[in-house]
Amino acid sequence: MEIRDAGIVVTGSSSGIGLALSEALVEKGGNVVGLSRRKTLIPAGSGGGRFRSFQADLSLPEDIAEAFRRIREEGPPVDVLVNNAGWGEFGDMEALPRESWEGMLAVNLAAPFFAIQEVVTAMKKRRRGMIINIASIAGKRGIKGAAAYCATKFGLVGLSASLKEEFREHGIRVSCICPGAVDTPFFDTTSIQPEKRMDTMAVVNAIIAAIAADDDILHEELIICPL
Ligand SMILES: NC(=O)c1ccc[n+]([C@@H]2O[C@H](COP(=O)([O-])OP(=O)(O)OC[C@H]3O[C@@H](n4cnc5c(N)ncnc54)[C@H](OP(=O)(O)O)[C@@H]3O)[C@@H](O)[C@H]2O)c1
């Protein structure tokens, strides 16, 4: 898909991978809408595209519904949805507060499900669309001390695999990206501190390659790790 002038929603645009991705997509001429609780600050004049952001708490289904109502009203039509927002809390499973379990499930797994519901009907009508879910290596391998986070990311990998089959006959591509450790504020407050971390651009470049592929080519699932 041509990125120039494409309507692209990036969740979790205020930080880390989502912020770097939003900047790169705007530079390539995309018409980008970011969603996150904090305001997303993209340097003015950072490219040929446009950027707007709406503040939304994606753990709340009503915030998701309201954000996509505004996007439908104000445009652009959504060609690409990148479900990137997410967070992790680690440690022994018996010590994990119930709110953390519910919070990770809500943002990492339920929010992508609801966001896809918001965009897929229009994508089917236009026979054009792409959904990219940012899962994790924690969605492919069990990690000690990350039971809840892994459960949400394995769920997102499963959701992606199933929707890939459901949507392909409608011309809608579903990709799932599974990064290993990336150098972002994600780890600012976590008990797990990976030694080797990739630059955010490693993941951003993979997402851009998946979007920019020919419309009849699908980058199904990609695991990217530091060597
Ligand atoms: N960093 C890594 O090593 C790594 C590895 C594999 C996968 N991932 C995944 O990559 C994605 C991005 O992570 P990152 O490393 O870029 O982390 P980050 O720098 O902490 O960014 C996380 C983003 O998610 C948003 N977010 C979190 N909770 C939200 C909520 N309730 N409502 C709306 N937005 C919310 C945050 O925005 P607000 O705080 O403004 O709401 C922020 O923009 C996540 O899904 C993460 O699981 C990260």
TrEMBL record:
InterPro entries: NAD(P)-bd_dom_sf, SDR, SDR_fam
SUPFAM superfamilies, A to Z: NAD(P)-binding Rossmann-fold domains (SSF51735)
Database matches in Gene3D superfamilies: NAD(P)-binding Rossmann-like Domain
Top-rank taxon, per record: Bacteria
Coiled-coil zones: none
Listed PANTHER family: 3-OXOACYL-(ACYL-CARRIER-PROTEIN) REDUCTASE, 3-OXOACYL-[ACYL-CARRIER-PROTEIN] REDUCTASE FABG
Family the UniProt entry places it in: Belongs to the short-chain dehydrogenases/reductases (SDR) family.
Name of the molecule in the record: Oxidoreductase, short-chain dehydrogenase/reductase family
Taxonomic lineage: Bacteria, Pseudomonadati, Chlorobiota, Chlorobiia, Chlorobiales
